[in-house]
Design a protein that fits this description.
The protein is an alpha/beta fold. It has 2 domains: 57 residues; 108 residues, Trna Endonuclease, Chain: A, domain 1 (3-Layer(aba) Sandwich), CATH 3.40.1350. The chain is 63% helix and 22% strand. A hairpin with a 2-residue loop joins strand 1 and strand 2. The longest helix is centred in the N-terminal third of the chain and has 62 residues. InterPro entries: ATP-grasp, Restrct_endonuc-II-like. It comes from Pyrobaculum aerophilum. GO terms for molecular function: ATP binding; metal ion binding.
Length: 176
């Protein structure tokens, strides 16, 4: 057996010899550097996670603010458009309330006339289940105030299916 074969046999079979060779080759330093790199990477990943969490919180606040602003603008548009229809029909508005609360049920805009209540739900991109939620809110308000309730859905991106469903349920639809 030659020197090369003997060397390879010792590397394979003799752990003490293998560790001594690794030490001479600087493997311990390489392993230490890999350990430090892993620690640095974990620290970096944790810091990035914290940054993403902060960015998500900021985005959530921005989304919330934008949603509130959109709701305020759309309720104003509905008030202007629906107010004209109400006045043209000879009705008189006796109360208008944004963010009205009825036993924990929030209504984006409530317009009360002498004979009716208009319950307005604002959604930028309403879905069919939003129509169901609007109808449930209208039912609560109608029971509480004892007047005929007209449900109104307002939004920007109201799909044909949602609009057809809402109109089929007797909901007035305003698209802005």
């Amino acid at each position: 057996m030659g020197l090369k074969e003997e060397f390879l046999r010792l590397l394979k079979e003799d752990e003490e010899f293998r560790m001594a060779v690794a030490g001479y080759l600087g493997l311990r330093e390489v392993l230490e550097e890999l350990r430090r790199l892993r620690e640095d990477f974990n620290k970096f990943a944790k810091e990035q996670g914290a940054r993403w969490e902060e960015a998500n919180r900021r985005f959530s606040r921005l989304k919330e603010g934008l949603g509130a602003l959109t709701e305020a603008v759309y309720t104003r548009y509905v008030w202007e458009d629906l107010g004209k229809v109400i006045r043209a029909s000879g009705e008189r508005v006796v109360r208008r309330v944004r963010n009205a609360d009825f036993d924990g049920v929030e209504v984006d805009l409530l317009i009360e006339t002498e004979g009716r209540i208009y319950v307005v739900e604002v959604k930028v991109r309403p879905r069919i289940d939003d129509v169901g939620a609007l109808l449930a809110k209208a039912e609560v308000v109608g029971r509480k105030l004892g007047k005929l309730v007209v449900s109104v859905l307002a939004g920007s991106y109201i799909g044909r299916e949602v609009e057809a469903y809402a109109r089929g349920k007797g909901v007035l639809v305003y698209v802005y």
